Amino acid sequence: MATFTIIETDWMREASRLGAIRRAVFIDEQGVPEDLEWDEHDGASVHFLAVANDGTPLGCARLLPDGHIGRMAVLPDWRGRGVGRALLAAVVEAARRRGHTTLRLSAQTHAAGFYTRAGFAAEGAEYDEAGIPHVAMQRRLDPDEPVRSRSFCLD
Ligand SMILES: CC(C)(COP(=O)(O)OP(=O)(O)OC[C@H]1O[C@@H](n2cnc3c(N)ncnc32)[C@H](O)[C@@H]1OP(=O)(O)O)[C@@H](O)C(=O)NCCC(=O)NCCS
């Protein structure tokens, strides 16, 4: 059975692998302009990298110091197999450890259902970001929820 791990890391250490995933998904696939993709938040964020047991990078996400989740991306060949779910769970767990009680994100509208499944709720009207419709979402955290396992199986 194929397994993968979520690595909790930083931009200094993993800019190359994180950047390659984001370039493939956001810039090449979705047409997000380069100058919007690379911003000042990467240096200060905690980053998450999903890697298969053979070392193949699968997806990524980041958590800003203010509790915003962003840059959630799974490479096309690996979608629909639980990688995004595991990444989001790892971000939530890391946020709880850091004492956040509310998580916020700006969801591409097409992906809102993905976040809803993980306990996020939409708030407010749709808006445009980088030419893509978005909706603000948030989730309150229960500080007493148990910590999850760090190893996952592909669906
Ligand atoms: C959105 C994305 C991260 C989901 O990753 P994924 O690995 O395919 O998601 P998973 O396989 O872990 O799915 C987890 C759950 O969410 C559901 N789901 C996945 N994508 C969904 C979507 N676009 N809309 C609604 N539900 C979705 C799955 O059916 C699954 O449900 P289940 O737990 O009931 O089985 C991925 O499609 C992606 O990278 N898309 C392109 C980049 C993007 O749009 N990122 C979001 C920016 S806000």
Describe the fold and architecture.
- The protein is of the alpha+beta class and 155 residues long.
- It has a single domain, classed as Aminopeptidase (3-Layer(aba) Sandwich).
- 28% of the residues lie in helices and 36% in strands.
- The chain contains four helices and eight strands; from the N terminus they run βααβββαβαβββ.
- It has helices at residues 11-29, 34-37, 83-97, 112-117; strands at 3-9, 46-52, 57-63, 68-74, 102-108, 121-129, 132-140, 151-153.
- An eight-stranded mixed sheet has the order 6-7-5-4-3-2-1-8, sandwiched between helices.
- The longest helix has 19 residues, at 11-29.
- The protein is globular.
- The chain starts with a strand and ends with a strand.
- It binds coenzyme A.
- Coenzyme A binds at residues 25, 72-74, 79-85, 107-108, 110-111, 113-114, 117.
- Coenzyme A binds next to strand 4, helix 3, strand 5 and helix 4.
